[in-house]
Amino acid sequence: MIGQRPVALRDIRGTAAAALYEEITGGPPARRAATLIGVGGSGKSALLADLADAYRSTGVETRLVRSELDLKNLSGFRAVLIDDAHTLPEPAYEHVLRHWNEHDGDLVVAYRPWPVAPGLRRLVSALGEQRPPVVLGPLGPAEILTYAGRSLRGQVQMEEVEKILAATGGMAWLVNRMVGAMRSTGLGADDVLGSVSLQVGHEIEHLDAGLRDLLLASAVGFDLSGDAVPPVLEGPPAEGDAIVSEAVACGLMMHDGTIVPLVRAGLLAVTPAYRVRPLQRALVDTLLAGGHSLNDVARELARTGLRHPHVARALESTADDALAVEPELAAELYEEATAAGADTLATAARRAQSAAQARDLDRAGAIVEELLGHENPPDLVRAVDVGASVWAQRGMLSRGADLYRWAGAERLGASAPLAAVAMLGSGDAEGAERMLAAGARHGSPTSLAVTSALMADGLWESLQGQSTRALWMLVRASDTFSANGAAAPVPELPAIIAALVAVNTGELAVAESVVEDALRGHQGGPAAAPRLQLMRAWVAMLRDRPDDARAALQEADGNLVPRDEMFRTALEVGLARRSDDAAGLVRAWARARASLLHFPVDLFSLLPLGELLMAAARLHEETRLDPHLADAWQLLERLGQPSVWAAPLHWCGVQAAILTGQPASLAPHARGLVTAAATNPYAAALAAAGRAWVRVLSSDVDVTAVERAAEGLSAVGLTWDGARLAGHAAARAPDRADMARLLACARDLHPSAAARQPEDTTTPSGIPVGVVDETGLSAREQEVARLVLAGKTYREIGETIFISPRTAEHHIARIRRRLGVETRGEMLTRLRAMLGE
């Protein structure tokens, strides 16, 4: 019979059983009595066997009673231990009680909670006057951890303990089976679960018919709560109570009447389907007749192969509830609904949405493509929204716009504003205008519809040069989308569009705030978090907080969609460029160069494109970006050269022209900035800086104008660029006082530059000197030396640390003299040895 196999628990300390063992064996027999109560397999027999061994080891005459025959002639034993006392006949209890009353010695009686005969009740009551019964209940996590650790002879992870507990309910006999299988196979809990459950299932087949029927009904999903009483309990109440009590006493059911999970799995594994299916259908009919939900049983019914329309509908409904907040769970539920007989065409759009939100773009795209191949596909608008979102995440926003055009404004209804976003993002202003008009006609009061309308209107306003109004609308769209808590498919997150407009207008604090709020509000669900983290990193980079940027980049890293992969690569390029990490820049550019092959241009990718343009110019590979830049300028031309979006790219063009030493290519970008400056304060700051750059490049350094331009750049969030302008101007200033003034401006704008040279003083000739250390070089000279080792020219060294090329040359001459070397090769060799490069 199941449950009678003893479990060796002697090594578990801290339990009531262990405490009893320590007390009973702590001295010679002294008329001590104890009772043990526990279900089958709870460890009663194991404990009694341990007690018997302990008594005998000290020479105490001991009788271990396992049947009525063992009760004869107890008078000669100082320790009597009775196992399975519940199986004894009624007269035996009076015999044991007389022995206890008439003889000295110890008596321990172990029994199950059912059946309890009147004589056993009297015996237990009499013995209980000395101490209350010791109850051997289910094992807890700490006890399983100790037992598994001793049995497996090694450290056991708590995760494994939790799996064992979940499968066994803490039933000691099942814990023993699981741990034993793990020990013999060397496998984990998950890996042995199938074999152990199959073994248990075969043992259960030999139970009495009534008990087995109760367990099978419970395994199918019937319960004892009254909602769905198992058919076997529909007879007289006393008979039903006896069957349930027997199941609990055998260690097959928990005390609350729920079947032990491992027993359930084993029973279903060995029972033929023709016996299971009628019970499953009866369960469904019983629940529906009583007006109860199928939600609690539907998943398991579908997993075990039942096809039933009501089960399928219950799973669909549960999946619909989870779709917006738990897409991975929703995907599982839709698959289970399909297994239960749900219409795959009817659920296709929702299944695609759950796959997309779980970042399985290939599966989502395949479902949408198959669905749209049908005539009059159901749930068309959702399918189009999902398809467009998938194309956007793949970096092909224009294909999403094509999908919306195919659907048509009249069929899209409340999704027309999303179509407008996709079309504006890919350069189709006329198509977007038609969609906006259609959206106004089909407006609805839902929060998602309000979000879509605000997002589309805000983007439209940004293209009309109304940056303040646009930002106001987009921030509201982002707030509404986050508050809704839904992970609806959109071509772009409202928080991202709002942050891009804020960055493009110099409102970095607004950009940071809207992204932080979106992250706190879990905007767009788990799949959107990496993109929001990348935007957070970009803003931190612009605000000259590289550590924060790298931390956010680390948070975003992982299985990124193609669109985000390009954004991440551009971020790495930008961080390397701003920290003057030449090696890191080369590595990041190599990755970006490969990604560019998969990178169509859209409005929302202009920010990373501009950063890549400056990196390419620095590495003299700007021609690689010619096709992308041509597409970008064509897109902006189709949208009417919107200054909010065009000005930042013009600024990147100015910087690229400076880096490549091609003043002629600077002119069109300067003109673009000047034109936009009339209506755009951000563009005005860039235009002023552009004019200052042009004059600096021609060695016409107007200190006041440069300072004003550099501070203007800083005011619109381009602090690093402003410091760089001042540093360049200082390198070309003919007057030493002007040079010092501009260097001070650069240091004020870019604190890390100042932090690199706090100890510098100046000789009468103007050459910086400083305190030397054991290398014989000052901190400034070491800084210059590292840049020399990095292969920098005088000009590049000056640009990096805000000194003139001539000053850099003087530093290198002093380094040679200090080292006592004549050639550059000798100097490089010495520097590598000294600086560990």
Automatic annotation (TrEMBL):
Keywords: DNA-binding, Transcription, Transcription regulation. It comes from the Bacteria. The keyword Hydrolase does not apply. This is Isoniazid response ATPase/transcriptional regulator IniR. It comes from Georgenia daeguensis. InterPro entries: P-loop_NTPase, Sig_transdc_resp-reg_C-effctor, Tscrpt_reg_LuxR_C, WH-like_DNA-bd_sf. Signal peptide: none annotated. SMART domains: HTH_LUXR. The keyword Transcription applies. CDD domains: LuxR_C_like (cd06170).
